[in-house]
Write a structure and sequence with these properties.
Elements lengths: L9 H25 L8 H30 L16 H10 L20 H12 L1 H13 L7 E2 L2 E2 L1 H25 L8 H8 L37
Antiparallel strand pairs: 1-2
Length: about 240
C-alpha cells in the first residue's frame, strides 16, 4: 500500500472542494424541489431535478474516491483511534472548544506528521462519513428509481420512508457542514486553514510540529505543557 506523506495531497483537496460544491448544489436544488408548487412540473422544477440527479451521481463517484484514498493511499491512518482518543480525549477536546479556544489556551491535540485530527474530529468524521453520508447516497439512488421501490412499506406508500430519510439526513449533514466551516476559521487567521486545504502543505513554512517523548494518542509532551511551536489549532 502506498502512503501519502502530505496530509493534504492533491486528490484529497480535489475531493474536499468538489464534495462541498456538489453538496451545496444538492441542498439548493433539493430545497427548491421540496417547496415547488403543486401541479404540472415547471421548467424550473425539471431543471432542478436534472441538476440534483446529476450532482447526486457525481457525489457518489467522489465518495468512491474518498474510500479509495482511505483504503489504498494511506489517508485512512488519520482516522484510526488510539489510546487517549476517548476518555479523557473527547472531554479534553470538548472543553477546549467550549472554553479554552476563547481564552487563548493551547490546542490539546496539535497537528503532527501522523496526527491530523483530534479525538472529537475523528469520531465525528468517522460517524458522518461512514453512516449518514452513505445512507444519504443509497436513499438518493432509491428515489432515482421509484418504480423499483415497494408499493407499500410500514403501512405507508413505499416511497415515503426513503424520501423522509433522505430529507432528514440532508438537513443533518447541512448542519454538520455549518459547524465544519466554523471550525475552519479557528486557525492563526480566519482564512489560514481554508488556504491550507486549497493549496496543500505549501501554505505552512518549515516542518510540522513534533512532540518528542509524548504519547501519540495524548498529543501533549510530558508534564502536560506544549511548546509554542506546537500550538496549532483546528483545520477544516
Amino acid at each position: 500500500m502506498r502512503r501519502e506523506s502530505d496530509p493534504y495531497p492533491f486528490w484529497l483537496r480535489v475531493w474536499h472542494w468538489s464534495n462541498l460544491l456538489l453538496f451545496v448544489t444538492l441542498l439548493i436544488t433539493g430545497v427548491s424541489m421540496h417547496y415547488a408548487k403543486p401541479g404540472p412540473p415547471s421548467v424550473k422544477f425539471r431543471a432542478d431535478v436534472l441538476i440534483h440527479n446529476t450532482a447526486g451521481i457525481l457525489l457518489t463517484l467522489f465518495y468512491g474516491l474518498f474510500l479509495y484514498g482511505n483504503l489504498r493511499l494511506g489517508n485512512g491512518r488519520y482516522y484510526r483511534f488510539v489510546a487517549g482518543d476517548f476518555a479523557p480525549g473527547l472531554i479534553r477536546q470538548a472543553r477546549y472548544y467550549l472554553w479554552g479556544i476563547f481564552v487563548g489556551s493551547p490546542h490539546p491535540y496539535p497537528e503532527t506528521g501522523e496526527r491530523k485530527f483530534n479525538p472529537l474530529q475523528k469520531l465525528s468524521y468517522v460517524v458522518v462519513m461512514y453512516l449518514p453520508f452513505p445512507i444519504l447516497i443509497v436513499t438518493g439512488w432509491a428515489l432515482l428509481f421509484p418504480d423499483r421501490l415497494p408499493k407499500e412499506l410500514f403501512g405507508a406508500p413505499g416511497i415515503a420512508p426513503w424520501a423522509l430519510a433522505h430529507t432528514y439526513l440532508g438537513v443533518l449533514l447541512a448542519l454538520f457542514m455549518v459547524g465544519h466551516a466554523y471550525l475552519g476559521t479557528t486557525g492563526t487567521t480566519p482564512g489560514e486553514l481554508f488556504r491550507l486545504m486549497w493549496s496543500g502543505g505549501t501554505e505552512r513554512q518549515g516542518p510540522p510540529p513534533t512532540l518528542r517523548g509524548s504519547d501519540p494518542g495524548d498529543g501533549r509532551p510530558p508534564g502536560g505543557r506544549e511548546s509554542p511551536a506546537s500550538m496549532s489549532k483546528e483545520h477544516p
